[in-house]
Structure prediction request, 384 residues.
Amino acid sequence: MGSPASSGQSNPGIESYRCAQCGAQLVYQPGSTQLECPYCGHTTPIAPPATTVDEIPLAFSDKSRLNLELEKDRVIHCNSCAAEFSVAADEVTQSCPFCGSNVVVEAEPIHRITPNGLLPFSFRESKGREFLLKWLGSRFWAPNNLKAQALKHGRLDGMYIPYWTYDSDTTTSYTGMRGDHYWETESYTDSQGNSRTRQVRRTAWSFASGTVFVEFDDVLVLGSDSVSDKFGQRLSNWDLEALVPYETQYLVGFHTLRYSRDLERCWSTAQQFMQPEIDSSIRYDIGGDDQRITTKNTAYNDNSFKHILLPVFAGSYRYGKKNYNFLVNGRSGEVQGEAPISFWKVLIAVVLALIVIGTAVYFYQESEQGQGSSSSQSVEVLPF
Ligand SMILES: [Zn+2]
Ligand SMILES: [Zn+2]
Prediction:
């Protein structure tokens, strides 16, 4: 192991934070910069960070610069869904917070890239529950008793989820086609046999090529298979400017998910995420009314990354016979998840829609008949 330039490598494991008064394991108090003893209430401030959250150059060939460290915390592995998360030294973990399976074992510590930044939780689980209920209440198609059911059977786990962020200065050379619209007068023969003219839109295509430069800052990629991409990648309201240097004191009292998608794999995901913006930049560069991109070749320069932990309340609730998963952003309260759809609400909506369509069709037919058969002969098409 080399000596990484970035912060965080000197953090002790999470088990070492003990209450000065009674010796119990302290927990991080969301929304604050202090640890709290859940037994006697004694608080200990977290020292203000001595460093900043720096970008790390992306150099796969030089592993010594990647902040690799042997893990210090106890890590639990779920044999059922393969989730791996760190727990406190004295925590008894009987089930997996992701799949509920009780086949969990201790994992061997291995060398991994240490996070260099995180966003601490800004509210507690009870508040997370409020955000969830508010969100459930706003689901239009959900059954009316959903909130009550979810309250009874719902479960919420505060945990830090691993993400990677990437910066890159991209240079893309492309070839393509530029389309310019113009109007042409076309002759045709109508059904009565008269020759007429009409205006038709055409597109003139011409060859185009060039180079575009797009800078990307903090492209965010989910680093775990244990969280569904659907929700984990969609949670987007992160105040990344508020990142603090990695500090294990913020993690005590919460599970921290280990990354299962590594730096290299997520870098190619990040490159995919960059494509739409590069494409629109090419289209703008080509100009005209329509564009086609034939070839493009992107060079990624000055690439750097951060490995960060973001706080979420993850959970599921049961409704009927099905489990529904959700994530609550532990900073903004944003919720991403699934909700059941009420059969009765949908049925009523379909019946109402059919009535509306049926009525419209009825009146349309009425008005057609009212105008009689003579009307069709009076229609006259004027030549252009
Ligand atoms: Zn205490
Ligand atoms: Zn599991």
Q: What stands out?
A: Residues 78, 80-81, 83, 96, 98-99, 101 surround zinc ion (ligand 2) (CB under 6 Å).
